[in-house]
Description:
The protein is of the alpha/beta class.
Amino acid sequence: MYSKLKKEITDSIEEVLTKLRVTLDEELTLEEPPSPEMGDISSNVAFSLASKLKKSPVEIAEEIKEKIVLPLYFEKVETKGPYLNFFINYTLFTSKVANYIDKQYGELPEKEERILLEHTSANPNGPLHVGHLRNAILGDSLKRVLEHAGYKVESQYYVNDMGRQIAIIVWGMDKFGFKLDDDKKMDHAIGEVYFQCNQKLEENPEYNKDIDDILQRYEEGGDARLADAFETVVEYCIDGIKETLKNLNIKMNLFKWESGFLRKGDVDNVLEKLQPFTIQKDILYLPLERYGVDKELVLRRSNGTSLYATRDLAYHQYKTKNSDISLDILGADHKLAAKQLSIALELSENRAPEVVFYEFIDLPEGSMSTRRGVFVSVDELIEESVKHAKDELINRGLDLTEKQLDEVSKIIGVGSIRFYINQISPEKPITFKWEDALSFERGCASIQYAHARACKLLAKSEYDEYNEVRCDYELEDEEKELVKELSRFTEIIRQSADERRVHHLAEYTLSLSKAFNKFYKSQQVIGSDHEDLRLKLVDASRITLKNSLKLLGIKAPEFM
């Protein structure tokens, strides 16, 4: 609704420019003034017209003001020097906003484009650790936002079941009889064996020849026992990873195994398309100097086996055939590989993916490496976050039963992790801090608490959600701020989807919760002269907060 207001102002200004027989050389932009006294929406269009009209920006602003026809939901326009400042008619606008918001609020019209979104795709050689966390959360949240924006989205986890790491585990279990600990979560048991195997390889590097032999035999096929061993290890680990993802409120549409592209001939197919551009020496590679990339892309080893990049090309060829947009979530250290992949795909007449790159997340505790066996798993992080949340709830002395305490602790703990990751632009690195993530004043818990407050207030009242209301009084500043924030939700969804950046939504959700809390503390609702309208605003806030949190993959508790 807020975006519609801005469009109506833009149209009104452009009508005046048409009368003045002048055109802008750039897109007309609008912004929010620094204080409510200066209006709700502002334009500096007069600056852009000064040279064309041979007048001062102050004169031009005054001339536009005199000629403009105000849209319906505005009460006046004022000039402040060269600026045009528009003031919303909150009596009319509040009635519109309050009655408009329902459970589907923010949904955009359905689009034809199908998006195949790949995220997480961690190697199945151990549990997800903090290094994987940002990929998984950004990917899942972006999927939710894109779907709300009208896209058809399928999320996929690309399972690297042919990698060296799996061969190492299969080798160690066969050669040294390493066993999976049945008392441990499946992916953690796999990670422990992987660590033991690497210790053996460090003691005797000659064993690496065994790994090369296993990889070659597995790729050539025909060894059913070896194929079963690979499949068992991968499935065992993936089952554990699925459990972790579920605890993070993440569900994949499909786990796509890379071996399928080799077995079905897709790898040979894409290599055949690249044949005119490749060079065969000891290895098969694609030279990329002419495309501004110094490092060639190796496609086959000297023993004829493929590489991860080769099979990834086949996977992206599949994406080209089965979607309109390919969207990958990748760490910043994959920029070179992504550039190589994109060039190879275009040469093979396939579509290069859109990529959202993210910087890394770290904990103050130190580094993470699966191979060395020193890392912080996502399972441990969730457990610690839930514990911190429970301690905080107990300290606050909230009136919760033990069952409610456990339930809300988990909701807050997982929500705090997801929100902390989502609220920071992917281009910025993150150091995870518990005091910020679990803050009841500025973190996700403060948003969840605002939602719970709204639920509690509505439960105390005789509120009828189907009752239409009308604003017939001059709103207080806190009410105006809340109405304006509520009206911005659809615009934020569109921006987040278009830019593939969910931090816009996270920032908005925090801003909305602050506006609601200010309204809640300053305005009487039940028993006031304006009870019906204010209850409607409370419910609109509840719906919008719940929708916002859901799109960020976070549950909204009804009590805290």
